[in-house]
Amino acid sequence: MIRKIDQRNDGQRYFEQQQFQRQEQGWKLIIGTSVLLLALVAVELFWLVPTATSSSKSAFSGFVAVIGIISSVLWLVVQAVPFKVRWQSVSVALACLLGGGWALLFPLLIQQSHFFSVYAYSDLFIFLSVIAFFSYRPALYLAVLPILCSLLVTDMYFGGANNAITFLSMGSRLIIIIVVRECLYHWFHASVWHEFEEQRLRKELASVALIDLVTGLQNDKHFELMLDREMMAARRHNSDLTVMMINIEPMHLYAMTCGHQACDDLLKRATKGLRRGVYRPRDFIARVGSSEFALLLPDTDASGAEIVAERMQRHVHRCCDMLVKGELEQPMAVMITIVEWAPNVNVRTMRRYMRDARSQLNLDEPQKCADSVSYYDPVNNH
């Protein structure tokens, strides 16, 4: 039958997977940005700022060493745990480490060295944090809010700026961060769900193209694909392969007597019986004609196929006999021809054998009133 996709659960799982992948990209971006900014600060502090004191340089070196040690420990923890399940915790820890570290470094540089270019670096870090963590709100705010608080405290106590202007500046930054984050998240959410819907529709269309809509069985196109695959597997493993061609009568007479809708109902009952006669998951059954079916039996020889054929006949009779006998005098008949594959037979020849077996079933008029199980002989039929 056609598999019904649980759109809500599958969509949520797909969105979380895309969210995780987006966070992986965000980790690389924010780590690379932090390394670059620290390198720029080190260049300016050690070579370009003449007012930098030795204590500020020592403090910066110690700060970088501590951040490096904590980052190494975090990296080891990430490698030890399945972070695909706990990527939120990794994002939060990384945001706390980088955001908190930058927030502590900022007032240190302003107070001891009057290193005012760090304002530009802080705004750049905030902007890239929004891009890196917009798909996970807690990590974004943990990365950004410590820096904003540090900027606010530094401006109030060391910058000498007007408190009202400082609050207005920080509030404006925060509003811009929230608005940009929500816009990015809305775009990300909409694009992911659009992609999921497109993939879901493609899968459903592909599934419908290979399924018979009346019986829910696979159609002849899918059967040919599976025949190619199973023949290659049988040749590779040197195993048996048998194909059964099945014709169920009197479908045409029942359709002319009771109508096409009643015939469709009878086909569904016959399909139910055929399914009950097939036990193994790998056995493949398909509808290949109006009242004709085909069954692939991997790792099965002719004697095993005959047992399956008799079992299918019994199940079809149990599902359909009462309905047919109530409308027609002619009894139900399940006629089966067994086609055994040989290693020297290619796909084209096997398909020709199957066509001959189908023709033999359709031309065998005297047998249409009773069940039959016959073997296809390629020598005589050729």
Write the layout of secondary structure elements.
Blueprint (H helix, E strand, L loop, with lengths): L6 H42 L5 H27 L6 H27 L4 H16 L3 H23 L3 H47 L10 H18 L3 E9 L1 H8 L1 H17 L7 E4 L4 E7 L3 H26 L5 E8 L6 H17 L8 E4 L2 H4 L1
Parallel strand pairs: 4-5
Antiparallel strand pairs: 1-3, 1-4, 2-3
Keywords:
single chain, 382 residues, alpha+beta, Alpha-Beta Plaits, 2 domains, 5-stranded mixed β-sheet, 12 helices, 5 strands, 71% helix, disordered N terminus
Report what the structure shows.
- This protein folds into two domains: 7-202; 220-381, Alpha-Beta Plaits, CATH 3.30.70.270.
- It is built from twelve helices and five strands.
- The protein has helices at residues 7-48, 54-80, 87-113, 118-133, 137-159, 163-209, 220-237, 251-258, 260-276, 302-327, 347-363, 378-381, and strands spanning 241-249, 284-287, 292-298, 333-340, 372-375.
- A five-stranded mixed β-sheet has the order 2-3-1-4-5, sandwiched between helices.
- Helix 11 (347-363) links the parallel strand 4 (333-340) and strand 5 (372-375).
- Helix 1 runs parallel beside helix 3 (87-113) and helix 4 runs parallel beside helix 6.
- Mean pLDDT is 82; it is low at 1-6.
For the biggest β-sheet, the strand order reads: 2-3-1-4-5
Cα-to-Cα separation, first versus last residue = 37 Å
From the alpha carbons, calculate the radius of gyration and give it in angstroms: 36 Å
Major pleated sheet:
5 strands, mixed
Uncertain regions: pLDDT < 50 for 5+ in a row? 1-6
Shape: elongated
> Which structural category fits the helices and strands?
alpha+beta
Number of domains: 2
Beta-strand percentage range: 5-15%
Could you tell me the number of beta strands? Answer: 5
Number of helices: 12
The percentage helix is over 70%
Order of helices and strands: HHHHHHHEHHEEHEHEH
- Mean pLDDT, to the nearest integer, reads 82
